[in-house]
Every structure is written in C-alpha cells, then in structure tokens.
Amino acid sequence: MSAWGTPYQSAVNAAGPQSGRIETLFWVFTILLAIIFVIVIVVLLLTLTRRHRGIQQEPLEQTHIPSGATEHRLTRTVAAATIVTVVVLLGLLVASVGTGKAISGLGTARNGLAVEVIGNQWWWYVRYLNDDASRIVTTANEIHIPVGRPVMIRGTSHDVIHSFWVPNLNGKIDFIPSRVNAQWIEADYPGRFRGQCAEFCGIQHAHMALWVVAEPPDRFEAWMNHQLEPAAAPSDADSQQGQQVFLNHACIFCHTIAGTAALGSAGPDLTHFASRSTIAAGTLPNTKGNLAGWIADPQNIKPGNHMATVALDSADVQPLIDYLESLK
Amino acid sequence: MTAATTPSIDLDRERASLERAWANGRGLLAWLSVTTHQAIGMRYIVTAFLFLLAGGVEALLMRLQLARPDNTLLTADKYNQIFTVHGSTMMFLFAVPMMEGMGVYLVPLMLGTRNVAFPRLNAFGYWMYVIGGLFLYWGLFTNTGPDVGWFAYTPLSGPQFSPGKRVDVWAQMITFTEISAMCVAAELAATILKMRAPGMSLNRIPLFCWGMLVQSFMVLFAMPAVMVASNIFLLTDRTIGTHFSNPAEGGDPLLYQHVFWFFGHPEVYIIFIPALGMVSAIVDTNTRRAIFGYPAMVLSLVATAFIGFGLWVHHMFATGLPQIGEAYFTAASMMIAIASGVQIFCWLATMWTGRIRWTAAMHFVAGFVFIFVLGGLTGVMLAAIPLDLQVHDTFFVVAHFHYVLIGGALFPLFGGFHHWFGKFTGRLIDERLGKLTFWVLFIGFNLTFFPMHILGLRGMTRRIYTYPSEMQWGGANALATAGALVILLGGILFLVNVFTSRRNGEMAGPNPWDSGTLEWATASPPQNFNFLLLPAVTGRYPLWTSFKERIAVTGLRNDRREVLVTTLMDAEPHHRYVLPRSSIWPFVTAVLITIGLIGSVFQFQWYYPGIALATIGFLGWFWPRAQEAEP
Amino acid sequence: MRRLAALTVCLIALSACQREKRDTRPAPIRTAVFGSAARESPLEPGGQLPNYQPSNPYDKSAYAISEGQRLFDWYNCSGCHAHGGGGMGPPLIKQQWIYGGDPANLFDTIVKGRPNGMPTWGGRIPDYQIWQLVAFIRSMNNEEPQSATPVRSDNIQTQPTIRNRVKGVTK
Q1: pLDDT at A54 over 60
Q2: What is the pLDDT of residue B484?
Q3: Which of A59, A85, B234, C143 has the most neighbouring CB atoms within 10 Å?
Q4: Omega before B253 within 30 of 0, i.e. cis
Q5: Residues on chain A touching C160 (C-beta within 8 angstroms)
Q6: Which distant-in-sequence residues (6+ apart) come within 8 Å of A73 by Cβ?
Q7: Please, are residues B184 and B104 in contact by the beta-carbon 8 Å criterion?
C-alpha cells in the first residue's frame, strides 16, 4: 500500500495508547458497517434479478398496490430492519462514548510532561513547561517526547485557528485564539511521527507540518539538557562572520538565538536550529543547500509566508549558513 | 364548483381564453417580466446547471493540481480561491437553487394548480440568485475571489487576516442566495399548504411535494442563521469595526462557527430532502406500484428535518467542547441515520414487490442507493467523536460528503432529469445514452472519491494546495484525478444526450411512463396554465384511478389568472385567488436592492441610498391596481 | 451599445486591480542610506532637475496595508508610536508632519531615521517592507481607499482566558 501514504502520518498505524484505542474503534465500525453495506447492496441487486413468485400481477396493474398480505410482510420486514438499525447504532454509540471516556482517562498528571504549542501562521512554537523556570525549553516545529510517558500538548494560537494533529499518536485538537485546548499523547515505541496543521489557516496551510520524535527516556533527557544550553558559540572565523551577518540584518527582529543579542519572538527560535530535521515547519529537510535557498528567497518556497526576503551580499551567504548549521 | 357530471364547456374557447390570460409575451421586457412558474423553474434549473459546470471546472483544476506532489499548475493563492469558490458554488449556487428550481417547476403541476402562490416573489428570487452568483464570479475573475474556505471561519476571514474585499464578496453572495432561497421556500410552502387540488388531503400529497414542504421550512429556519453569521458577524466586523470575533474586546471566534454550522448542517439536508422526494417519484412510476409505507416516509422526512437542526456541533468536535455536550451530538448524528434508513428500506420494499422497469432514471436511483448508503455509513463513523478527531479536516471527510451529496442529491437529480426530460421539453431523452451516462458517472465517481477515504486515514489533510512526494500520496491522488476525468466524460455524455434528444428525441406525449401523479396529466411541455381543467383528486395517484372517477374543477374565470385556494388539511375548496400577470417590478426591485448590497460591500455608506432604492422598488411592486369588475 | 457594455466590463474587471494586488515575490532591495529617498528641500543647484518623487508601488493594495499593520507590531513601531497615537514618539495620525506626510517623505523618514530617537531602518529591512509600512501609516490617516483599509485589527489578548479540557497538570 505504499502508493496510499506513509505509515508515519497515519491514523491506522497507531503508535500510542490513545490512537491505538481509536484505531480499534475504527476497525470495529468499519467491519460492522461494511457488512451492513453489503447486505443492503445484495438486497438492491436482488430486486434487479428476482422473479416474481407468488405476487399477483393483476392487482398491481390495476390498483398499483399489492395484496394486503404482501404489504403486511413488508411492514414486518421494514420494522425489523429498523429495529436492527436502532440496536446497531446504539451499540456503536456505546462503543464510541466508551472509547472517548477511555482515552480521556489515559491522561494523567502523574509523571506527565507538559508541552505548550502555539500555532502561528505557518509554524509551531513549542515550549516545554516546567515548575522550575530554568528548565523551560523553547523550540519550534519539532517536539521530542520520551517513550512511555504521557505528554500533555496544551495549546492556543497567536493569530487564526490552527489544529494540532499527529495521527499516529492521537486525534486532532484545534488551537483557537483566546482559548487553551489540551490533549494527551504518548508513544509506545521510539520513532519519528509527522503531524500537520489540520485547520485551514491561510495561504501556506499546506506547509505547516511538525515532527514528533519519540525517544527512549535517557536519550530524551540528553536532548532536553542539550536544548537548555545557550547557542553554540561560533568556533571559527567563518562562523563568527556568519554570526555578525545574522546580527546585522533583519534576522534579529524576529528570531531568538539564546546567548546572543538576537531576541526576536515573532519567528521560530533558532538557538538549536541545526538539531532539527526540517526547515520552515516540515517543508524542507534541514541541509545547507536548502537553508541557503530558503534564506535567499523564502517566498519561492513558501509564497506568502511572513519571513522577510532579506538582501544578503553574496560573500555573506556561506558564512551565515555555516553559522546556522553549527547551532546544534 | 365540482360536479358529478360534466357540464357543457366549450373546451376550445376555454383553452384560447386561458392562453391569452397566461401568455408571457415576447421581447426583452416581457422576458424580464415573466412570472409563470415553468419559465422561472426552467431558468433556475439551467442557471444552476451552468454553475454546476463552473464548479466542476474548478474541481477539475483542483484535481489536476493535486494529481502530482509539489505540482505548480496553480499557485497557493489561486488554489485557495478555487477551492473556496468550488465549495460556495456547489453549495449555494448549484445545489439549493437546483432543487428549488425542480420544485418550482414540478410542485404546482403535481398539486394540480396553475402557478405558485407568489409569482412575482418567485421571479424576484431568481433575479437575486443570478446576481449573487455573477457577483461571486466577478470576484473570482478579478482576483477578488474568497480564499478562506466555503465556511470562512473567523479570525482567518476577519479584517486582519483577510485583507481586501475577497471575503466581503463571499459574504454578500450569501445574502443574495439566501434571500432567493427564502423567497422560494415561502412560496412553495404556501403553495403546498394552500393551493392543492380539491380532495388532495395532506395524506395524498406526492412525496416529492412533502420533500419540498419540509425543505421549505428548513430553509426558513436555517438561512437566517447564515445571514447572521456571514452578514451580522463577519461583514460588520470587516466593514464597520464590530468585534464579534475579536476576543480582546469580548468576542469569540467560536460563536461564528456555532451560528454558521447551525445553518450549515441543515443546509445539507435542504439539498438532500428534495432529492429523496425525486427518488420516490421515480421509484413509484418505475415499479408500477405505490411507494410502500407512505406515512413512514413522510414521518422520516419530517424527522430528518427536525433532527437535522440538532446536529451542528459534529462539525466542531475538535474545538475542545465539554464532553457531556459532545456525547449528545454523537447520539443525534447517529439517530438521523435511522430516518434515512427507514426511507431506504421502504424503497427497497417497493422495488422488491413492484414490477421494475429499468429506465435510465432507475439506474440513477440504484446508484443513489449504493453511493448514499456508503456515504451515510462513513457518516456514522464520523459521528463517533474519537474517529472524527482523527479524520476531521482530512480527505476522509471530503470523501464522505461527496458520497452523501453526490450520491444522495446529484444522482437522484440526474435520475430526475432523465425522468422528467420528456415533460420539460416534449421529447424523451435517449435511454441508452442515459444508461451509459449513468455507468460512466458511477465508475468515475467511485474512482475519484473512494481513494480519498484511504488518503484521509493516511494523514492527508484538506485544503492543501500541494503535498510533498515523501508522503506517498501521489498514487491515490493520481487515481482520483483520473476518476475526475471520467466524471467529466460522463458530464459531456449527458450534455450530448440533452442536446440531441431535444432535436431528435421521440415525442413524449403527456404520460410516457404511465405515472400516477398529476404532472403527467397535461401536455409535455405544459402550457403556461398547466391544466385546461383543474383536477380534483380522490387518492394518492390520481392518474392510476379509473377514468370514470376523475373529477375536474369548473367555474374559475379564465380571462384572468385565477386559481383555487383550498383548506390546509383536507384541501376543500375555500376561495378564488387572482394571481398577478407578468410584472417588471421583481426585476427592477432586484436591481435596486443590488445597488445597495454591492455598494455597501465597498463603502458602507451605500447602505442608506440602497434602502431608499429598495423602498422605491417595493412601492412599484405593491402599488395597488384597480380591481377588475366582477361579472 | 455593445461597445459600452464591453467598456463597462473592462472597467469592472480593472476596478479590483489595485486593491487586490498581492506581490508575494518582492525583490529584496535594500536601500543604501540616502539612496532614492525623497528630498527635503525644493531647491537645487544648477538647472531644474526633474522632480523625482518615488511613489509607493504598493499604494492602495489591501494586502500591503495589512502586511504593514503586521510589521508595525513585529518591528515594534508601536513601542514608540503606540497604534498611531504616539507615546515616546510622535503620533502618526495627524495633519502636520514634521518631516512631511507624503509617501516619499514617510519612506525617507523610515529609511534614514530622524533626530531624537527614530532609528535608521534602511539597510536593515528590505525596501518593500518599508513601502508596506508607509501604506499602512497612510491608511491610518485615511489617505488610502476605504475599501483597502482594514477597519480594525484583531488585537488578540496575549493571555488566553478560556481553558478547555485541561485536566489537572501542574502548569
């Protein structure tokens, strides 16, 4: 089924308890309803082909109503079918409500991790919440979670309505400005799962993806600790020049690189930019070539997005790319 | 006025007099002044069909863009405008007006009367609809097409995130089309309740007329909600600085969603219920028996309408609502399947015990059962909140609603076209080409939309202008595009059939299908006055009663447009009612109102002269005319 | 009659042009300071040079005005000018402009900076964004068509007030 989509953004490849329960419910519904569909179509096809045995033709031709006995039999059949329909729907209702309750019961504060995600046009702001302020990590478009631990995704929007959806882990939750909505996700095994904004949010709604990376707990801790550090200082002259380019252009108006003078909050945090696998919310893989193309002309890649097209001297491009890709 | 024996009537004099009284006249002015329901109904049907073609072109463009990953056929901006206009066209400019058009044409014929209750309102509604549709397309062609989805959620559609006049064009198009829909709803409801043939008590009305009656009431309750959402919330936010969706000042983006979907869900039943009526009309004719379970069918229609108003939150399951409320909407969304299910069972029962004649129309009815039931079952899946939270806003939902709308409304509609083509044009449509059209449309439709179920489950969200090749959605999308081209072929076949049958088709005569309802009791196409002698009825299928038992109404004047108004329950004759002749005022009033409505989109101050102009129009319309002297 | 209809159609078609223009691939020109900025003195030595007044390429474009509104907040113009009423900086909704209120003068002010606190933006942000800001400032003063000017902004509160489905987590 490779022509039918990848397994890492798929509701039928559940990787967590919430999505697992949903997938089970999906198969229950699909199989039961498929059987009902087949029965209805078989009846329809039989009306095509059946010969009329025992139905008087004559009354039909004149009165256009079959005999009372026939009507009576039909009444009983239709009534029975209706009752079966009601019973099946009631059963499905119970299954649905039961699954919903089971899923919300999976959320627990015990050992839970809380991640705040804020939708922007057209990227995801991510912040790991913590009672200890020194352990708050801010990043963008990529969320690492520890395997086996419930994670609360709590979010809102800074502009229009977005919707956070990582199908392998759970259903979607809308991020509505002025409201905070939350859902729990949890990964049962390590992996990389792609999510995408699922509420039309403007011209680049198509390019607003995110990655959820589930890691074993020790690797997750290592990642967190690394993210807490300020940005890597430039190690050679090339990167130093790149840092100067960054600080002397419009970049600092929107982006933050912790540990430097760049403290803009309108765009994604770039402190550990090179540790992320994609650029522009999942639009491009994070490579030097892609980054150069993105910075030179972001409107070519994601027309209409809010990143300014900054003019760079050609001598400044390579140092800047080198510097940004050193921000692991 | 009813007589057991036939009084002596000079039928030729009667006919000549009626032709004079009901003539439409010639020339441009007369064409703009027409108030007969057949002409206006046909205009609705043709105009709505043109919008169907336009929406189809937009769909093809979308499918061509999505056929390959990272395609560059359409820019993001153009794609967003096209999918918004596609949705708006199909919902507001094709589906509802088409069903209304079929109703406007067929209902007076089926009820045995000469026109709808409010002929000038009928004309006015049509002009408003056409103007609204043209306004939207003006927008599309001048880069002012709306680009926020057919539902235009705030704050995306608000003044900050949708600059320019694109969304205002959309909002005002809604004003035009909802005014039109409400006009037709009001007149059809009045006609069905009060202008039936004597003896056609409520339990003898054809099921198509029951469908139109239920739909009319739904329109009257649902359309004001979209007027509030699009005009009072959205348009005033955008033009005069209100804060309905600005949370900083006490507004709430979710309020718009509630009010919009309070309309939006009944809207799909407004489209669907007349189609159910058409299915009944086709099935009883082509099985040679009365539809089984008439009371159950009527109650199902009414139940669908009532329950349909209580479902709207199922479009909003992802917005973070209280769980206890959500469970109610799941239950209601599943419950409505019972009503539709009863209807399907009754039709299958009718087909089981009838003597089926497999006309092209019956093919479309069979296709309807297949496609609509499949769509309805995915709808039951969507009613379950956990499932909905996974597939909401993905191509799974796109597949679902195309199955229920195309299967549930378009296939019956095409069946209706093939069934009533002879009545509309006087010549029968070619049956073989009609059956071929059915198969091409059926195969093309399933090829296009079935893969979308899988695409949605595999993560493909809606309203995206492109997707990366790594997602491996390309194969299924290419298949869907191929299916779209097959649907295009089916559409072409249908048009070829229409045009060649109009020229060379077999003459239809009044009742080629030996049907039982009254629209088949007169010439094809009907004269403007419908029936030479108005019928009175004694059963559900007047033309299936023996000739001796048929009764005609006499005594109405034939030198003016006079009809018989009957009582509500038992349709006993109550009084005579004079309908207006042709009048230019509906057209003039529509144009005058348009000046105010369109002007106020660009500069709010146009609202004031607009009111003045509208008043002038209404004054002309309602100016009392001297009554003709009673003989 | 037919020509009149054709002319009307053309006019109607063109009427949307300026307002709905959306340039999403602007050239990232960075004005060198004192480059093509407007002059402040009408006097010229030598003969009369042609009157060069750069006009706003995004004039009357609703999208540009909207982008200007966004940039006004993102680049923190509101920090000194509030939302047009002024604070540390002078108001931007007024009749008497210290350095001129024509589009070219506003461009010049933003590019060059001004004494007493207006920073120099030329060279930092691309020209097209400066023109967008100019369009927005002009729209605040009703100098842009009403149909292209946003009626209000959605100043979303920074603190969300309605919490949904938050089941007992520490933060």
Answers
A1: no
A2: 97
A3: B234
A4: no
A5: 156, 177-180
A6: none
A7: yes
| DSSP codes of every residue in A127-181 | EE--SSGGG-EEEESEEEEETTS-EEEEEEESSS-EEE--TTT---EEE-TTEEE
Q: How many CB atoms lie within 10 A of CB C30?
A: 20
> What pLDDT, on a 0 to 100 scale, did the predictor assign at position C1?
59
| HSE, side-chain direction, 13 A CA sphere, residue C103 | 24
C-beta of residue A144 within 8 angstroms of C-beta of residue A164: no
Q: Is the pLDDT of residue B91 over 90?
A: yes
Tokens 């300071």 locate to C33
Best to test chain C binding among B74, B148, B160, B252 (most C CBs inside 10 Å): B160
Q: Residue B203: how many CA atoms within 13 Å on its side-chain side?
A: 4
A35 to chain B, minimum CA–CA distance in Å?
11
Rg of chain A taking only CA atoms, in angstroms: 28
Binary contact (A97, B327; C-beta < 8 A): yes
Tell me the ipTM for this assembly. Answer: 0.95
CB contact under 8 A, B384 and A92: yes
Neighbours of B50 (CB within 10 A): 13
C74, C111, C157: which to substitute to probe chain A, counting the most A Cβ within 10 Å?
A: C74
Cα atoms in the 13 Å half-sphere on the side-chain side of B268: 23
Token digits of residue C75: 């680049």
Instruction: Sort out which chain A residues have CB atoms less than 8 A from B337's CB and list them.
Output: 85, 89
3-state class percentages of chain B: helix first, strand second, coil last, to nearest 5: 70, 5, 30
Tell me which chain B residues have a C-beta less than 8 angstroms from the C-beta of A99: 384, 386
Contacts of C25 in chain A (CB under 8 A): 297, 299-300, 303
CB contact under 8 A, B341 and A81: yes
> Is residue B10 pLDDT above 80, yes or no?
yes
β-bridge pairing A123-128 and A113-120: antiparallel
B78 to chain C, any CB pair closer than 8 A? The answer is no
How far apart are the C-alpha atoms of C58 and B442, rounded to whole Å? 50
Q: What is the mean pLDDT of chain B?
A: 94
Q: Let me know the angle formed at the C-alpha of B430 by B426 and B433, rounded to the nearest 5 degrees.
A: 150
Task: Using CB atoms, list chains with 3+ pairs below 8 Å to chain B.
Answer: A, C
Q: At what angle do helices B360-383 and A17-49 cross, to 10 degrees?
A: 160
How far apart are the C-alpha atoms of B157 and A287, rounded to whole Å?
Answer: 36
Contact A3 B351 (CB under 8 A): no
Q: What is the Cα–Cα distance from A15 to A191, expressed in whole angstroms?
A: 9
- Provide, as residue numbers in chain A, all residues whose Cβ is less than 8 Å from the Cβ of B541: 64
Give yes or no for a contact between A208 and A281, defined as CB atoms under 8 angstroms apart. yes
User: Is A116 strand, coil or helix?
Assistant: strand
**Residue C163 clears pLDDT 70, i.e. is over it:** no
Residue B531, C-beta contacts closer than 8 angstroms, at least 6 positions apart: B112, B114, B518, B521, B522
| B-C contacts (CB, under 8 Å) | 80
Nearest to C154 by CA among C65, C58, C70: C70
Pair of tokens at residue C79:
């920090």
The predicted-structure confidence for B217-235, as pLDDT tens digits, reads as follows 999 999 999 999 888 899 9
User: Distance between CA B342 and CA B344 in Å, rounded?
Assistant: 5
Judge: C154–B246 Cβ closer than 8 Å, yes or no.
Answer: yes
Cα separation, B50 vs B43, whole angstroms: 11
- The backbone torsions φ and ψ at residue B102, rounded to the nearest 5 degrees and listed phi first, read -60, -40
Measured between alpha carbons, how far is B180 from B132 in angstroms, rounded to an integer? 9
Q: Which residues contact B569 (CB under 8 A, 6 or more apart)?
A: B201, B202
Amino acid at A278: T
Closest residue on chain C to A296 (Cα)? C28
